Structures are given as structure tokens and as C-alpha cells.
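Reopening: C-alpha cells for the D-galactaro-1,5-lactone complex, inputs below.
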Amino acid sequence: MKPFKKLLLTGAAGGLGKVLRQSLAAHTEILRLSDVSSMGAAAASEEIMTCDLGNKAQTMALSAGVDAIVHLGGVATEHSFEQILDANIRGIFHLYEGARVHGVKRVVFASSNHAIGFHKQGAVIDSDCLLRPDSYYGLSKAYGENMAQFYFDRYGIETVSIRIGSSFPEPVDTRMLVTWLSFRDLSELVRCSLTAPNVGHTIVYGVSDNKNGWWDNSKAAHLGFKPQDNSEQWRASREAMPQLSSTDPAKMYQGGGFTKMGPFN
Ligand code: NAI
Ligand code: 15L
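Re-run output (same inputs, fresh job):
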């Protein structure tokens, strides 16, 4: 027996959406997929609802009849404020309003390390650290985390906000040796975030068991997440690449290159 009857996955056409489309199938009878881009054909146990997160009515309708939401949809890298506003800021409001109206009790929100990206590389921070967004994109994730806290305090909707590090097939540089989250660990962290009891609003760093980590997940221990992978097999090759100067913001701060993008006017 699967733990959920129907889950909603937004951002289903994206890189991580494709990963979770596969792994979430084991935990739900029906997986409702949503994105503004094409998601291909629905399998027998899938439903497809194309939707722009900037559209309130469309986004609110996504939550009807679902047990829980995994929210990945949105602009996923740095852009101008105007480009981020509809998908990420209005979008998460529309999503939580849908959850409230339709009685959905649990959201898993794909936040990002860029909500805290102006902390120094090498500093160890936990989930109570000061928000230090490194970009308009990071600001939208900080806003999303605050939205999650508000909807828990006001309406009792629980959220796990996952500050994802770098979730790709492999780390591409030395920063990602620290920030990398394997797809296997991502899938397990999302499973834990959906099923752990009494999460309130929990903030957790989405990171594999990498050496010399910057992120302390002790305050999210109740999720039961135990990463299985680490980035060591790529260390020698990534350390052999040409390295940034120690005074480059991309080398100084946890958010890497996002800390020096823009301005956009
Ligand atoms: P992605 O860009 O591949 O996927 C995002 C999806 O959101 C895309 O399919 C896109 O079409 C959709 N989207 C964008 N604007 C939309 C709108 N207005 N309405 C509906 N859908 C819209 O990004 P990826 O890597 O799959 O990331 C998924 C989530 O995880 C994002 O929220 C991202 O910010 C977050 N994240 C990802 C990290 C990573 O390393 N991959 C790291 C930190 C956070
Ligand atoms: C993110 O938030 C982005 O979505 C992803 O594309 C990477 O840039 C990642 O952070 C990272 O910091 O490596």
C-alpha cells in the first residue's frame, strides 16, 4: 500500500522534476504533474496539468484533491527581479492559497542555498542562521521560506523547505564538491520530507554526505534523512581544474557565482 493517494509535483518538466517524477511514483497511487513547459505523455498513474505559476486561478486549481505537494516549479537561476516575480514570488503565494482552500496539509518546497549564499565558504551554518540571499533568485527563496512559516503559523499547513545545494549528475567544480546533492539522496530527502510526522516548518539543507561540509542539519534530524552518497570520487579531477582567486566573490561566498551577477538594468 502506497502512503499517498495523490501527490502534486510542480516543475515536473525540469531537471529535478524528471528525477522526482520517477522516484515519487513508488509513494503515490497518482502523481499529478505540472509545469508551464511540455511534460510529455502521462503514464497510467499520472495526471498532467499545464500551468503558469503566475496565474492564480490555474495554480490554485492544481491542489484540488491532492494529499501533499512537492513544489519545484519556478525560475531556477538568477534573472532580473521582474522575471522572478511572477513564477517564484506570486507563484508561491498562489500555491499556498491553493493548499489552504483545498485542505492540503504538507508542502515540500525546493528552496536553495542562494537564500543564504552570502555566508562565507568554510563557515558552518545551521537552519537558524541569518538569511543572507545572494541574488533576486535567492531573495525569492527566502520569501518562499517565510511564506511557508506564515502558512504554518496561521493555517497549520506543514512545510519542509529544502535548501538544495547543487543537485546534478555530478559536481562540476570545487564548490560543488561541498554543495553536491546526488539524485538518490534528493529522492530520499523528499520522501522523508513527505512522510516524517510533525515537521511544522522545518528547514533542511539538501546536501549529500560530502567532506568538509558547510551545512549542519542537526536541527532537521527529526526528518530521519541519512545521505548515502558523497563527492569524493570527483575530488582529484575538480581540484586539478584552474581555480578562482581567493578574492573572487565566487570563491569567498557559499552562493558562488550568484553573488556577483547583475545588475540587470
Ligand atoms: P529547472 O529550471 O530545470 O526546472 C524548473 C521548472 O520550473 C522548469 O521545468 C520550468 O519550466 C518551470 N517553471 C519556470 N517558470 C514557471 C512558471 N511561471 N510556471 C510554471 N512552471 C515554471 O530547475 P531544477 O534544477 O529542476 O530545479 C528545481 C527546483 O529546485 C527549482 O525551484 C530550483 O530553484 C530548486 N533548486 C535546484 C537546485 C539544483 O541544483 N538543481 C539547487 C537549489 C534549488
Ligand atoms: C540553485 O539554486 C540553482 O537552481 C542551480 O541551477 C545551481 O546553480 C545551484 O543552485 C548551485 O548553487 O549550484
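The pocket of D-galactaro-1,5-lactone (ligand 2) is lined by residues 76-77, 112-114, 166, 179, 256 (CB under 6 Å). The CA atoms of residues 160 and 193 lie 6 Å apart. Marking as resolved unless the reporter disagrees.
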